[in-house]
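pipeline/complex-builder :: batch 7 item 3
reading input block
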Amino acid sequence: MNATARDARLGIVGCLAVLVLALVAACSGETYQRYDGSAWPNRRPDVAWPDASFSGVTTDNGSDTLSVIDLAGPRTVGRYPIGFDPLGIDGPHHLAIDLVDRVLFTALSFPAPMISPGPHGTHGFSTVPGTLVRLSLDDFRVLHRADVDYSPGDVVLTPDRTRVIVSHFDLARAMEFDAGADGRRGSVWVFDARTLARLHAPIVAGVGIHGMAVTPDSRLLLVTANIEDVLVLIALDRLDEPVVRIPIGPGGGMARYGPYSVTLSADGAVAFVANRDGRDVRRFDVVSRTFDDLHVAGLRAAAMFSAIGPGGATLLVPTQAPDQLVLLRTDTLELVRVRRYSRDECQLPHQVNVSPDGRYFVVCEGDHVGPGAVLAVDPDSLEILGRTTVGVYPDAIAFVPRGAGR
Amino acid sequence: MTPRITRFRGSFLAVATVLVCALTCAPLPPASDRGALLVRDPGLAASAYNVFACTTCHAVPGSVPDDRILPGAPLAGATLRPNYWGGAVVDLRDAVEICFQTFMRAGSTRRDDVQWDAIYAYLDSIASVPGAVTTAVPFNVPRTVGEPGPGDAARGADTYRRACQGCHGEAHTGVGRLAMAATISIIPNDTEQSHRAPAYNLIDLRTIIVQKTRHGSFLGFAGTMPPFSTDVLAPRDVDDIVAFLNPELRL
């Protein structure tokens, strides 16, 4: 073979190789380029946390927002929409914060739609299961979400930060009188605080369960059952064991007492149960698992979410009808002081909470149409030190130290 | 074989290869081109029951100009807007997911990342075209609505054609609607059929049309209809539509 013929043959082989490669490339299935930009970038604005030792954040369950508060005023510095339903109310209900992982937990309760009393309303009244969300403190973006049952009520994080727990204030279920005792009871759902993976089957707790508290050792959960009139005790380290139901008082069972919230002393030895229908506060010994029937604080008002006062000697209880803040002694539940609120000061106080640096704040629901409010109060005199408006129907405040957000 | 023929054959194959390469190795079209097709494709949602594409409710650049009244905000500029759904949503992907799940019946099945990237590429490519809206688009929807006013039937006929007919077809017959019964209703016939006396009265029936127009498939309502805000359909427009439809109460 001379050189020319060899070159030609090599040329043919080369061309065929190129041709095959080209055809292979053409048949590879890519008919469009891949997008080389950053698709769907997170453009959420960072939360504008105030440059203060502690900030506050409220769940505004009537406006689907979280309000961020500079506690120094107090002064609301931002409101951030959360939730998934752009028209309806998602109803973010209560919150818990993990400062180490820099996340906020809240439960979207999706209340029945408040549509006009027109005829189409009878088609709806959706009963939509709730959603637990785990939000970044940087920008309140959703990091994790988990389905929960209907009408989530309270959200707590165990002190060891391993579990987040949701109760269900399911009054529709509570009214199903043919369903038997357990059929009417709401359940407690326990989740892994990092992943929101559910750790156990729903724990049937009580009828109309609502407020919760966890002992400092993270081993015992206390839950109020608003309709069943019991305090439910659940061993968090033995979830398979039957729950314990302690009657609030004699003759209960159909919201005679209406236990709504429970507040623990710092050492977890004493719990204070606030009753909406019984309009009183009762003292519960966690160790002996008995109520102190000798000392009951009759308030003649619906008791809501309370907080232990400075040094543990007092209990601050917000009440509704009438709207006021009540100061009680924790040892005897004797009444120390009452501060009545005008409509302009605090309509429907819902919760008192104390910041880690010892300041006290009252969350006022408002009229559920316009803005609610947060008051800074003196825990001894109960005088109002400051006031700020937040979103619609706030129901809880939690605290974030400087640097916890981005 | 003579060297001359060999050289000729070699040259021919080389030229052919170059041509094939030129055809097959040409740069692939950009992802935004694919995205432009996807936003026009109801198949994006992978639901046999979905009849909506993004462009059913949203204007896009380059479409044939028409006078339709669309419930959704224009897509041009969407990637640069500070929020969506009247401020209720601040993340674009979240905003799109609402459409995808609520109107397009996509459920929560896993999304095709390549498709979604292409859609974003398209939105990105039209972010700054002339006329793009990069500010927040008003979206006001009253949560409660009442009985419609008297309205102007003649005006209502034109408003119905622009706002409703694209999906529901012609009033009373449904001719030209997007899909057959059970997916897209015939207005007002199907409404009359499912809201009869004595459970409902004529005021109820008229109010239902207003409620459905405003709330679509939200606030506890079924279906996949998008809501029309007062920013795109004024209260008087809806009154006119009801006057045009003139629903009759059936027994």
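note: The CA atoms of residues 153 and 244 of chain B lie 4 Å apart.
queue -> next item
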